[in-house]
Each structure stands twice: as C-alpha cells, then as structure tokens.
Amino acid sequence: MTQAQRRWIFLVAGTGLAAFYLWGLSGLPGFGNYPGPYGPAILQVAVAQTHATGVVSAVNFLYRGFDTVGEEFILFTAASGVSVVLRHLRGERDRSAVDEAADRDVPPTSSAVRMVALVFAGPAIVVGWWLASHAQTNPSGGFQGGVVLASGFVLVYLAGEFLVFERFSPVDLLDVVEGVGAGGFAATGLTAVFLSMPFLANWLDLGQYPGAVSSSGTIALISFFVGLEVAAAFILIVGELLEQTLLIRQGES
Amino acid sequence: MAVFPFVVVAWILGIGLYGIVTSRHLVHQIVCLTVVQSSTYVLLLGVGYVTGAVAPYYYDVPDHTPAVDPVVQALALTDVVVEAAVTALLLSFAVQAHKRFGTLDPHELASMKG
C-alpha cells in the first residue's frame, strides 16, 4: 500500500468518524451542565460514608474498587510483559556501552543535568510517599504517588550511571515489592469477604473525622498498596528498557 | 463556547490519528497513539465539568459544596494508567522489532515479513 492510498483510506474513515462524533456531540448536555446521576449521588454521601475528603480516591478505591483491582493488574501484567518481551534472547549477550559511531561526538551528560537530577531525587521520593499516603484527604493517591516515587529512581539514573540505578533498584527486591503491592490490594478486598462483607467493602475503622490522615479505613490502605505496586512496576519497566542499551545480538558488527 | 472543549478533543484525536497513519518511525507512531489517548482525558473531564463547581475534594471547603463529577475523574486516572502500560509494552515491541529487522520504519517492516 502506498502512502497516498493510505492517506485516502484515512480521509474516508476520518470523515465517517467525524460524522459519528458530531452525532454523539449533539446528544450531550453541553459543557458545564453535567446531569449525573452517579457523580452527584456519590458527592452527596461519600464524605459521611467513608470519612475521605478526597472523593476521587473514594470512588477509585471503594465505590469503583473492583475496577481498580483490574486496573492494577493491567499494570502488573504490562510490567511482566515487558520483562518477557525484553528477556535475554538466544544469541544476545551483555556488553559494556561503547561508542559505535566514533566519528560523531556524543556530548557527555552535563554537570547541570547531574546536579539537578541529584538535587531532585530525594524530594521526588518524599513527595511520592506523601502522595501515596494522602489519597484520603488531598488530590493524590497510590497511582500518582507511585509514578513520582519511580521518577526519583530515574533521576538517580540521570545523575549517575545505569549501574548505579541497578544497585539502587535490585530486580529481586522490586519483584517482591510489586507482588506485595498487587497482593495486598487483593488481600484487603478478600479480608472483607472473610468478615462476611462484600468484596472490597470498607472493613477498617473509619477514623475520628473526615480529613484526618488516619481516616477512611481501607481507602488509605489500598492506596498505599497501589503506590508500592505502581512504583515497583515503573522502576522495573524503565530498568528493562534501559538494560536494552547494553544488549547486542551476537554476530552484529 | 459550550462546544469548545469538544472541538479540542476532536482536534487532538484527529491530529494523533493523522500522525499514526503517516508516521515513518515506530517510536513516533507510539507517541502519536498517546496523543490520541490524550483526547479521551479532555473528553472525560469536559463531560464531567459543572460550571462554577469546585474539585471533588472537601478538605478545605464545606461539605456539599457543588463539585465536578468525581466518577469521570477516576475514569481519567484509569485511562492514564492503561496508557502507560500500553506505551511500555509497545516500546518494548519496537525495541525487539529493531533488533530483528534493523529498521523502525513501518513500511519497511511490512515488506520484510517472514
């Protein structure tokens, strides 16, 4: 198929898509007039029911918790998938990074990048922990916190070398952390079943008042587990992709 | 102005799809896919918006203040996570494709089957 044919097919299909989009748009209530019903219903009861002032977290980890289990395992599966796809294949061996295009000048990492990365690595990890442990009160949660936590480790890579990154994030430990995160979420849900409640029901004490860090029961606990899982998964994925730069097929010049 | 957010959605979606169709590089194509997916964030948040409402967090505003819809915001979060997972997997496939065929041009990849 030539480029021109491809473009024509896209044009025809795009026209159809645009028609459907406009048709769908005409049925919307218009920007700023969201009619519900689920959002307003949850906003009415969420704070009193869960003692969580962060209603998005309450939706994610309680009302829609079953979906979020699936979501977390999507990430878990993706991390495993990346490991499988990028495994050491037959004929591949490790090599230290060498400059293949010797005539081209590769600028070394500037000390400004190293400095900034080093300065921000610590704060990124602290902010990540804070986000993962404050899902119940503020706009945050395990998913956001986990990603920020993982970016702290990527900054370590930027500040140093891949070998330093590897030492800071050993794969065995990450596998355990990821397992604890994903398993902890499922176990929290199943505990409710053993206590004769529905799966993922809030079986923990809700705390004294909405807005306290210790409030909201399982919402805070699940967010913490999700934070562990997401951070470990992202560090694993980044590590796998970085490791590829050290791999070469045998027989390649 | 009531349709402006939805025009933005259509624009992001269209430009991303155009990029996927005309792309000559797999990594570029994957980035275009993330652009396409970004349109869904704008759509979700646009659908759930309520004029004059606050964010659905009652930490420092009185209870029962009108807030925007928390369900679509939670859905947008799911959307982001799935995008990250899909991108990671696709990028690792691109790495393997380059190792195997020595090119990342989708057209050359298509003509090098077998």
Q: What is this structure, in a nutshell?
A:
The complex is a heterodimer of chains A (253) and B (114). With 253 residues, chain A is mostly helical. Helices cover 65% and strands 2% of the residues of chain A.
Order of helices and strands of chain B: HHHH
Count of helical stretches of chain B: 4
CA radius of gyration of chain A is 24 Å
Radius of gyration of chain B (Å):
19 Å
Low-confidence stretches of chain B: none
Order of helices and strands of chain A: HHHHEHHHHHE
How many strand units of chain B? 0
Main sheet overview of chain B: none
Oligomer: heterodimer
Low-pLDDT runs of 5+ residues of chain A are 249-253
The largest sheet of chain A has its strands arranged as 1-2
Approximate helicity band of chain A: 55-70%
Describe this structure in words.
The complex is a heterodimer of chains A (253) and B (114). With 253 residues, chain A is mainly alpha-helical. Chain A folds into two domains: 1-35; 51-97 and 110-249, no CATH class. Chain A is built from nine helices and two strands. In chain A, helix 3 packs across helix 9, helix 4 runs antiparallel to helix 8 (171-194) and helix 6 packs across helix 7 (162-168). The radius of gyration of chain A is 24 Å and the shape is globular. Chain A starts with a helix and ends with a strand. With 114 residues, chain B is mainly α. Chain B contains four helices and no strands. Chain B has helices spanning 4-22, 26-48, 70-101, 106-110. In chain B, helix 2 (26-48) runs antiparallel to helix 3. Chain B is elongated. The chains are: A mainly alpha (253), B mainly alpha (114). At the A-B interface, helix 1, helix 2, helix 3, helix 4 and helix 9 of A face helix 1, helix 2 and helix 3 of B.
